Amino acid sequence: MRWKHLKRSNRVDDRRGKRIARGGAKLSGTMIVIALIFAVITGQNPINLLGGMMGGQSGGQSTQVPIPKQQSAAEKQQADFASAVFQSTEDTWTRLFAESGQRYQPPSMVLFDGQVQSRCGINSEAVGPFYCPGDSNVYLSLSFFRQLKKMGAPGDFAQAYVIGHEVGHHIQNITGTERQVRQWQSQADSKYKVNQLSVMMELQADCLAGVWAHHANKSHQVLEPGDIEEGLRAAASIGDDTIQKNAGRRVNVEAFTHGSSEQRVKWLTRGLKTGKYDVCNTFSEGV
Length: 287
Description:
- By secondary structure, the protein is an alpha/beta fold.
- Helix content is 54%, strand content 10%.
- It folds into 2 domains: 18-66, no CATH class; 71-285, no CATH class.
- The strands form 3 sheets. Strands 1-4-8-7 form a 4-stranded mixed beta sheet, covered by helices on one side. Strands 2-3 form a two-stranded antiparallel sheet.
- A hairpin with a 4-residue loop joins strand 7 (130-132) and strand 8 (137-140).
């Protein structure tokens, strides 16, 4: 994927190397001394020990505590890549909204490792990238890119698709789709129907990721031979059926929340080929 010529986003909040201190607890001088002595004896990081002491106390709000972190050249490049792709999504959707007489309200992106605090709660990087409607932020741990590779979906466009998908959820939020779906889910009479609505949301976000990529390539020629295949492999690798099989479980369609591999490939492809927002109505066409 050709991305180094793209602009970088100024809406990226890099929180990597920051630890969540829960509860707003204060440490006494005695506790600090004990932690330092124990660190010398055991060879552990005193910051981690102090964090453990604070985490065991309750009350107050969570805060972000800076911890110096050395970044490798690869990590710096991944963050630079994420910033470039994120800016590309903003440029694309700003233009598409303007063409329909609307003003695009862009999200921000938070890079994190370990855990992160959002208005949707505290989440671990183990949950993967996510979008929080409460604060209009895309949350991304770069470790997910390594996970994608392990799942058989390497490549920079596979990673870009993931970012485009989360921005797709932002589109759903600002257009009112997310709110409407949550209302439908609250009125659903079965867990299966709730899950099906979730599947439709996720597949639409896949399609919107394809719409972004279509226009980004049209305006900046970002796609190279093999890139589309990378994106489709990524979509297939995170299908509910594939994840269930890889976990050694039987495929249970009623438990799907994101769609099958076939469905995810289908809707990403539709967005990529057409570049049209209107073709992404998974709710009217079914999944």
